[in-house]
Amino acid sequence: MPANVHPKPFIIHPPANLLTAHRQLRRNSVTLAQKYAxxxxxxxxxxxxxxxxxxxxLNLDASxxxxxxxxGRQILPIIxxxxxxxxxxxxxxxxxxPDHGFLxxxxxxxxxxxxxxxxxxxxxxxxxxxxxxLFTSLPDDVDPEKSRLNVEDEQAQVQDxxxxxxxxxxxxxxMPDDGRLTTLREYLRTFxxxxxxxxxxxxxxxxxxxxxxxxxxxxxxxxxxxxRSVRDQTIAQAFVGSTAQLIxxxxxxxxxxxxxxxxxxLTRQLSQLGVPHVIGMRxxxxxxxxxxxxxxxxxxxxxxxxxxxxxxxxxxxxxxRPLANETTLRRxxxxxxxxxxxxxxxPLPMLLSPDPSRPLIDWAFEPRPPKYxxxxxxxxxxxxxxxFIGRRNELRALKxxxxxxxxxxxxxxxxxxxxxxxxxxxxxxxxxKEGYPVLAWAARPENSWDDFIFDLELRLxxxxxxxxxxxxxxxxxxxxxxxxxxxxxLLAQYRGQAILFFDNLETLQDPDTLELTDARVNAWLRAAxxxxxxxxxxxxxxxWKWDGxxxxxxxxxxxPNYGDFxxxxxxxxxxxxxxxxxxxxxxxxxxxxGNGRGLxxxxxxxxxxxxxxxxxxxxxxxxxxxESQNDMALAQIIAHLPPDARALLERLPVYHTPVxxxxxxxxxxxxxxxxxxxxxxxxxxxxxxxxxxxxxxxxxxxxxxxxxxxxxxxxYNARWQAIEYxxxxxxxxxxxxxxxxxxxxxxxxxxxxxxxxxxxxxxTLPQAMTVHHALRRAKQKDKxxxxxxxxxxGKLNRAGFYRTLLNNWLPDICQAEDDRTRAEALx
Length: 827
Description:
- The chain contains 34 helices and 26 strands.
- It is of the alpha/beta class.
- The termini are far apart.
């Protein structure tokens, strides 16, 4: 419920001769500014001297007493109005009344500034939800000891304040992990925020003896993560035409100006452009104080829908209390003690607004809680999350190593579900945008190493394929030598740069020694490491580091911070009541150790639990080992599935690659051994032709249920313009341990459907390889051989892969029982 504010503000018009008639005010103001500028302690007495001096020269005792009496129990807004920049430069936030104390932090008042009264016909505010953009810039080349801002904590605090209202559909929040000016412009254009936080390092430049006029600048990031100093006029122009109603410049000196330059200072620039409300910092603010200020401000704006001046007054009050007594940073990078410095922080935020009563949005709207259904990404068979979340510092540090030419190989380790694949995949995708081809393979039972190598061979040009085939014959049996030859040919085609990405290598490690046990993978790693080409980057993920791997090329993944965890929680479609309970959210974070995949399964597991069941389940998870928490959550999810969804889930491992929904429905509609389908309840012959989807609502509902609880992932196949589905690898592992293997006829159905796709839609060599693999999984060896002769062998022969044919394909086909197939293979 918003505060009760008196409709008529008390306007203070400082007399034009104030500074000439009372020169001590100017001296006191300069002294106070110098204390902030030179990191001196600003005491309560310093602020009182300044504030009393301002009040005593105004002669407003009688008129103010009358206005306060009229306001009664209502909050009385106070506005300092002047078009003289020298007068507005004074620290009016310290204004101190003899009886009411500091008016800028008293709960009975609000205090803001303006240059002129508002227009008589303001625009009608847009209906909600309130769109909030938290834009942070953190260049790599700032001093890590003195100037590194705690961006993660700021994001976490703002999210923590807004999460309950996001869940109800009252607020939308975006927090880009990219501090470039172009990114800010893009979000202003596409997201169209009402509230913008611009957080980072700002600087006011004024050299009185120089001819250059004074100006303010903000430290954005450039393409390489370094500082790009951008002047106030350029930044202000980025907001032209934007929907921003309140801009909070949470950067040091962002509100500072000088008497002879009305347009100097980003705060003034934005206000003159017509932004209704602008909050800037008059001097450098403590990083911890800036974070608390931001949290209190959004809490008031979103939770109670306060007007900006009331929210600002509450935020000032939030930073009047002493902070923890520890060394911290000012936003200008100087270390001091929080307890001694924090008391002087509250007067620094200033609000410049023609009409502080103007709301940011029209709150009279029907909120719609957000529903997220993001599609997963795939990278050459490696499944990546729909959106990479957080880990800004880690990602930036790794990218910085790459920019300096120091990233040749990297092993990322950490517990399951913590985001190893996501981080490595994000690096690979970002490098792919710069022209690096990605050679990726995930070490999982359904992913054949031979298929991966064959895919690499198919990338060779005809000339290189012929050379490779002859060299491969010469070095037969030397896997490392053959790998080096293939990699060199590929690098030559790719202008000397490529990424070798091996995921999930813990499946190939000895559980006791942690050594890699797969000879072929070891040979490839040795070959890649021995190549001299600087453009080859090796990315590996595993739960454990093995002996001999260089410590400098090892990145042990930390648990996600709470801010990143909140971002993940917002995308889990959790009930608003759950997200509004901040204590419970923190308990889940501690219990799951920030595990993102664990959160996904936890959210699905508790969807149908009552409060008591949920608490019991959370307590059980807290007492379990981290490695078993996912299995516990999966057991709960699967136990609560309807019979048709459970039956469909247990059939899905027959597909080793993602398939369109019609392939899923084919399994659902198929009766096995003369029985009714467990999914559709209808008898169906095994015909090999896909059945119509529209007549099977039960199968549709079952698939929707499985995707809703994240047991099945979906991604968009851009080439075939289709959404495809595949069981999640962790779910597949759980089923392998806890459910029966699907019956053989279902593997045959999967192979027949893949063949249908090949004949009718995807007549490509990769799809032919998928069909061949599916036939072999279905134990249909002769059909696999026949299919290979008809659709694969000829293409390999024409491409010059003679040695591959002789070694890998024809020997198996020659063992076929069918005489014709065997004769063609031999002849």
